[in-house]
Amino acid sequence: MNLDSVRAANRASFAELVTRPDRDIDLARGALLIAAAGRPHVEPGPSLAELDRLAHLVGTGTGTDASIDGLVERVNLVLFRAAGFRAAARGRGAEAEHSLLDVVVDRRVGLPISLAIVQLEVAWRVGLPLHGVGLPGHFIVGGPEGLLLDPADRGRRLTRDDCQILIRRSLGSRLALTEAMLRPAARRAILTRVLRNLRVARLAARDWPAGLAAIELLEVLEPTDIEHSRDRGLLLGRMGRFTDAVALLGAYLELAPLAGDVDQVRRAMITFGDRRN
Fold first, then answer.
1. Which residues span the domain enclosing 254?
2. pLDDT tens across 208-242, in order?
3. How many domains does the chain have?
4. 213 lies in a domain?
5. Cβ distance 38 to 7 under 8 Å?
6. How many CA within 13 A on the CB side of residue 248?
7. CA 222 – CA 165 distance, rounded (Å)
8. Is the dihedral of CA 244, 33, 187, 82 positive or negative?
C-alpha cells in the first residue's frame, strides 16, 4: 500500500471517529490516529494497553479513599511521580514528538495538551470525571467544584490567579482570564488543538508529507476552513505535485478573492505552473 493509500485509510478512520457525538469520541484513539498521520507503522494497541496499566495502578492503590481528592492525588502520584511523565523542556515544545501520543506514552515527555490527554484517559478509566480546559497558550485539566490541575507541573492544583499567570507567561500579554476560558473543552476541540500544534511542528521541520497528513486531518474537523485546502496546495507544490497544487490554489482564489495572501498564492501558482510537465 502506497503512502497516499495509507493516509487515506487513516483519514477515513479518523473521520468515522470524530463524527460521533462528542461524549462518544475515544480521545486516546483519536490522538493515536493523529500520531499515525504520516507514520504508517504506528499501532494503537501498546499505548492503549499502557494507559490501561497505569489506570490499574491507580485503581489498586486507592484503598478506602475513593473521593475525588483521593483519586486525583493517586492519579498524580502514579503519572507524575512513579511513571515520570513531565513537560517538554522549554524551547523544545515545537518538536513533533511531543504531540504524538504513542511517543509521549513511551518516553513520558510531551506538551501540556499531550500530558492532559494521558491524565484524562487514566482518570476516566477509574471513574474520575475530569475534562480538558483550553486556556490560551496553555492546556490544563478541570474537574468537579472548580478543580483545576496543571499536567505540565505534575498535576499541581491551580487557582484562577495561577491560570492568569500561565496565560501571561505563555502569551507574553495582559490578556485577562475570563469564565469562558475555563469551560470544558470538547473532545473534538482537543484533537483540533493537537493537530494545529503538530502542523506547526511538521512545517517547521520541513517534513512536507507529514505536514500534509496533519492538514488533511484538520480538514476532516474543519471542512469549511478553506485555508486548509490552500495549505495542501502549497505543500503539494513543495512535494513536486504541481498540477494538483495549481488546481487547489486556483480553487482557493475563487473562494477567497479578497484574502490577504492572494498575491503570494498567485506567485506560487505561477511557480508551480511553470514546472508542470
1. 224-275
2. 999 999 999 999 999 999 999 999 999 999 999 99
3. 2
4. no
5. yes
6. 19
7. 31
8. negative
